Amino acid sequence: MKEPITTVLFVTGAFVSNACWDDWKQFFEKQGYRTLAPPWPNKDAAAEELRNRQPNPAIAGNRLAELIEYFAEIAANLPEKPILIGHSIGGLITQLLLQRNLGRAGIAIHSVPPQGIITFKLSFLLAGWGPLGFFTPVGESFMMSFKQWQYAFTNGLPIEVQKEGYYKLAIPESKQIVRDTITSVAKVDFKKPHSPLLLISGTADHTIPDSLNYDNYRKYKSGGSITDYKKFPGRTHYVLGQEGWKEVAYYISDWLQEVI
């Protein structure tokens, strides 16, 4: 009997189109995996089209609890448990799905941390101030300006890369989704057994400093499940499209071969 093909379920983060996984899908398909990178609810359109709809009340109404259930249903309906690979809020969702035993393994790339893990590092506060939408209506979606994109995602990268990334990927976001990440919806029981988990960070990330990812990793150390951590120098929050992304992808592929 032919062995079933393992599915990699990519979990997109906030502020970006699911097209951020296009190259990653090709990479893992060449490794023999089936891949899925579904858009978030109300985001099934090209980035430019979604920007043209700004402000978007449908996107503004997205909440983290419903988003978790959305990806949980996708994972549960696959023929076998998928490998979960998430970026930013997608990394947080990956951790939460592992809590529910919905993944064969999980990789959280530059992950938003679960509830209770926080930093007061200036870059983190500056990158998050606009998306949190303080003193603005929560019923309006938030669209990151190019200047904000440069700081939060592509800091230090060539201007051509910054512009191309913004045009291809930047989309409106729900302020409520961002706020929900500091509530009990994002709570993780770090002592609960879970499938193998790899947390990846980057030293140049303004939005999610590597110290946050390391603190996230350390919380799991009291449990007995496989939990690993890898820090890559010079990687920004645009890690999925930044030059050298294949180095991260190969590291993940090799790690998967070891743990599953």
Kindly describe this structure.
There is one protein chain. By secondary structure, the chain is of the alpha/beta class. Helices cover 40% and strands 12% of the residues. It has 11 helices and 6 strands. The chain has a 6-stranded parallel beta sheet with strand order 2-1-3-4-5-6, with helices on both faces. Helix 10 links the parallel strand 5 and strand 6 (227-232). The longest helix has 15 residues, at 245-259. The mean pLDDT is 94.
User: Helix and strand succession?
Assistant: EHEHHHEHEHHHHEHEH
- The average pLDDT value, as a whole number, equals 94
Radius of gyration: 17 Å
Decide which structural class fits the backbone.
Answer: alpha/beta
**Helical content (DSSP H or I, runs of 4+):** 25-40%
Largest sheet: 6 strands, parallel
Q: Provide the spatial order of strands within the biggest beta sheet.
A: 2-1-3-4-5-6
- Stretches where pLDDT falls below 50 for ≥5 residues? none
How widely separated are the two ends? 20 Å
The total of helices stands at 11
Number of strands: 6
Beta-strand percent range: 5-15%
Overall geometry comes to: globular
Give a short summary of the structure.
The protein is an alpha/beta fold and 260 residues long. The chain contains eleven helices and six strands. The chain is globular.
Keywords:
260 residues; 6-stranded parallel sheet; 6 strands; globular
What topology does this entry show?
Blueprint: E1 7-11, H1 22-30, E2 34-36, H2 47-52, H3 57-60, H4 64-76, E3 83-87, H5 89-99, E4 105-109, H6 122-132, H7 146-152, H8 159-169, H9 175-180, E5 197-202, H10 210-219, E6 227-232, H11 245-259
Parallel strand pairs: 1-2, 1-3, 3-4, 4-5, 5-6
